[in-house]
């Protein structure tokens, strides 16, 4: 019973802590306890090594050419709001032979947004409580091509 409760607690903690931590890998020190037993009262000494190793974003250079007027306006709206963690990014893709723009979610259970080239919302391909978005374009992750980072919140 105790191990099942511990497993459930760790699962919940993992889900909650992973929600907004995109692009981060966490490792755990593996020093053995002093007594050699994990059931004793000894706790491994903390290590001085960094146990959080950030992973690079998909692309560090944003393509600033050809941003449509609606997207420039959208970027200004985002910049007028509080900074999100992780920072909002906008990617351009080719999807169903059309240019589309994908705006990442500011955090956790928020929906991402997929815009047509004219700025109309196509769908919300992922995010939300289920992580599957609004269900209107479930093939987007598989069919998108030609990823280009168009903008990332610099704050």
TrEMBL record:
InterPro entries the record matches: DUF6970
Signal peptide stretch: 1-18
Residue ranges of every copy of the DUF6970 domain listed in the record: 76-153
Biased composition (Polar residues): 38-63
Amino acid composition bias (Basic and acidic residues), ranges on this chain: 133-146
Ranges for region Disordered: 35-63, 132-155
Pfam families for this protein: DUF6970
Keywords: Signal
Keyword match Signal: yes
Protein name: DUF6970 domain-containing protein
């Amino acid at each position: 019973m105790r191990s099942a409760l511990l497993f459930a607690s760790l699962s919940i903690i993992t889900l909650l802590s992973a929600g907004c931590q995109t692009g981060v890998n966490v490792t755990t020190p593996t020093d053995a306890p002093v007594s050699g037993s994990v059931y004793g009262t000894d706790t491994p000494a903390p290590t001085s090594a960094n146990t959080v190793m950030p992973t690079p974003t998909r692309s560090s250079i944003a393509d600033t050419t050809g941003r449509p007027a609606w997207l420039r306006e959208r970027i200004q709206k985002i910049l007028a709001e509080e900074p999100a963690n992780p920072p909002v990014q906008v990617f351009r893709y080719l999807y169903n032979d059309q240019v589309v723009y994908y705006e990442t979610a500011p955090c956790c259970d928020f929906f991402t947004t997929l815009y047509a080239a004219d700025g109309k919302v196509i769908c919300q391909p992922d995010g939300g409580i289920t992580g599957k978005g609004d269900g209107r374009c479930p093939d987007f992750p598989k069919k998108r091509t030609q990823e280009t980072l168009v903008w990332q919140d610099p704050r």
